[in-house]
Amino acid sequence: MRVAVFPGSFDPITNGHCDIIARALPLFDKIIIAIGRNSDKRYMFSLEERKEFIRSTYANEPKIEVMDYEGMTVDFCRSVGATFMLRGLRNPADFEFEKAIAQTNRRLAPEVETVFLLTSSGYSFISSSIVREILSYKGDVSELTPRAVHSYIEKKNNK
Ligand code: ADP
Hints:
This protein has a single domain, classed as 3-Layer(aba) Sandwich (Rossmann fold). The protein contains six helices and five strands. The protein has helices spanning 15-24, 47-57, 73-80, 92-108, 128-136, 147-158; strands spanning 3-8, 30-37, 64-70, 84-89, 113-118. A five-stranded parallel beta sheet has the order 3-2-1-4-5, with helices on both faces. Strand 1, helix 1 and strand 2 (30-37) form a beta-alpha-beta unit. Adenosine-5'-diphosphate binds at residues 8-10, 14, 16-17, 20, 87-88, 90, 94, 119, 123-124, 126-128.
């Protein structure tokens, strides 16, 4: 069984993440979307909110599971029997950053192969931080996030 972990903050999940996930689905038997808990980071959405956005987006996709973890991603991969780690690449800055991480991870866990998918054109500008920035000005993110995210925000704002 080919199990991949897609690690990230997903604060919140965006159409950029969804593009990578959709294109990775045919490659793996199971994709665990894994939210890393980092006590030094301040998030816009709680862990439960971030999980729920992903769960409802993929409610009809049996190959996808949502989990959270603390500590090193390679240790989490081992604990769930994943031999692939999935990452998305948007630009040269992502490449440099991801290269250092992937090479370090290979030293720590040679059995976990990092697989990179290049962002589809049209999605490369999307990031969770841009979504958060727009939300901080109460702007419209319906073109940038899956429905679970923007409908939750609309409901919250109309209360
Ligand atoms: P992290 O804090 O690990 O960067 P993110 O949730 O921001 O967590 O990103 C998780 C993964 O999704 C990373 O590999 C990132 O490069 C990828 N990603 C995010 N946005 C996009 C996008 N628009 N296109 C392709 N990959 C993306």
